[in-house]
Design goal:
With 100 residues, the protein is mostly helical. It has 2 domains: 31 residues, no CATH class; 55 residues, no CATH class. The protein contains 5 helices and 2 strands; from the N terminus they run H-H-H-H-E-H-E. Strands 1-2 form a two-stranded parallel sheet. Strand 1, helix 5 and strand 2 form a beta-alpha-beta unit. Helix 1 runs antiparallel to helix 2 and helix 3 crosses helix 4. The chain starts with a helix and ends with a strand.
Length: 100
């Protein structure tokens, strides 16, 4: 995963807490469960942010956040799981397998 993955998940859970969908204890449980998964953070994403990631974001009208996931999938030859329509369309256009 790009290094921003943990920040994005943290933000999603925090927003759910602020909206009353989750209690702080629920957030803690979910973070603990995620912490047990074998998630590897890619050390190269930041170094590619101003070059490859921006180029993908620009050419496919993506946010740099979404383009970071796409760049990583392209570089690693991996598929991408997303429900974001623009990201899925860009990935498919570049030959990246997409699952919801």
């Amino acid at each position: 995963m790009p290094g921003l993955f943990q920040l994005e998940i943290g933000n999603i859970l925090l927003q759910a807490e602020r909206k009353g969908r989750l209690r702080p204890s629920d957030v803690a449980i979910r973070l603990a469960l995620l912490g047990e998964l074998p998630i590897a953070t890619d050390p190269e994403t930041a170094g590619r942010a101003w070059r490859d990631v921006i180029a993908l974001a620009r050419s496919h009208a993506l946010t740099t956040y979404d383009a970071a996931y796409l760049e990583l999938a392209l570089r690693k030859g991996a598929g991408l799981a997303t429900r974001d329509k623009a990201l899925a369309a860009a990935a498919k256009a570049l030959g990246v397998a997409v699952s919801p």
